[in-house]
Amino acid sequence: MSGVDVIARLVAAAESRARDGLGRRLRTIANGDPTHVIVDGRRLLNFSSNDYLGLAGHPALVAALKQAAGEHGVGATAASLVCGHRRPHAELEEALADWTGRDRALLFSTGYAANVGVMQALLAAGDCCVQDRLNHASLIDGARLAGCALRRYPHADVEAARRQLALCEDGGAMLVSDGVFSMDGDIAPLAGLASCAAEMEATLMVDDAHGLGVLGAEGAGSVVEAGLDASQVPVLMATLGKALGTAGAFVAGDGDFITALAQFARSHVYSTAPPPALAAAALAAVSIARREQWRRERLAALVEHFRNGAQAMDLPLLPSRTPIQPLLLGGAERTVAVSTALERDGFLVVAIRPPTVPAGRARLRITLTAAHDFGDVDKLLRALAKAMRDNGGP
Ligand SMILES: *Cc1c(COP(=O)(O)O)cnc(C)c1O
What we know:
Layout: H1 6-19, E1 29-33, E2 36-39, E3 42-46, H2 59-72, H3 80-84, H4 87-100, E4 104-108, H5 111-122, E5 128-132, H6 137-146, E6 149-153, H7 158-166, E7 173-178, H8 190-199, E8 203-207, H9 222-225, E9 235-239, E10 249-253, H10 255-264, H11 266-269, H12 276-291, H13 293-312, E11 324-330, H14 332-344, E12 347-348, E13 351-352, E14 362-367, H15 374-389
Parallel strand pairs: 3-12, 5-6, 5-7, 7-8, 8-9
Antiparallel strand pairs: 1-2, 2-3, 4-10, 9-10, 11-14, 13-14
Helix pairs in contact: 2-12, 4-12, 5-6, 7-8, 13-15, 14-15
Bound molecules: pyridoxal-5'-phosphate (PLP).
């Protein structure tokens, strides 16, 4: 008999987190329009979504989803390898491979499942996985699940990555980084990581959840922007739930690798395929994201406009040229106070606190989308100036 009530222990942990002011609230959001949400009956200008290109509500995506649901039904009815792999999945995989300049791509239901699946397929006990300290939680969990040694290096420090790789034992080694860091918005030193991986004979993997659609020619992502190909970054993962405005994720690479991955990635083999209609919507999103360069141009102009304004006000901006524009406020309490003041003024800017970010690094994670206009950004800047002034200054 163990005598430990695991549910009571979990409940106590949640209560303790709430006492520390770090509890999170699940809020039910009603949809307003591409830039607004309705929260508790109030219409808020939204600066917290990852819909960077403004595609989540695009009529072409909605039409593709409806049309495909009519043809294929709602659910895929089984895992891909059973009978869940439908024509929209196949077309989407082909389109994603073509976009990212790789032989093949394999779909997963979520980015979390993709990361866990690919890492568990590639790594095992005796291997070593070297990761940036600020990598997404799903990459950390993937390495843990694989049972390999996990070594983390200080953020964006290529020399430290090299030192960690040098400490790996004789087994296989992977070097893994976010392309764009999800909470900081900065871009990984990909060229440096690629030479480091080559020199240390490690396999480089990039999670481009926030780069795909936003960076590089035709929005092909941070890896393409850095001028790297599949020989330098053999494992590319990206998601469809951010700039592509839908849901799901994929891993892209050489044909042999992807064929083998489909056999061994447990989150692919033992999970129902994503709804075919969702794949059809994502296919429409890929086509718009590639073609409509104006969305990226507008986004870049909005980012620049926001940064100029924030700099003029001495706001604590982190260095980022992506649509993720965090204001580093430090303490969780003050960050929540500023976020709450903004909400009273009609803006949704969610406070990001530990454990999502390190202690003392709480922030407002402001995200911009191509659906915003300059007036929206100006309104936000004015509200920020006031909220910061009322809560201890910039
Ligand atoms: C969002 C995100 C994921 C997870 O993707 P989901 O499709 O939301 O599960 C993985 N990696 C990074 C860097 C992300 O930002």
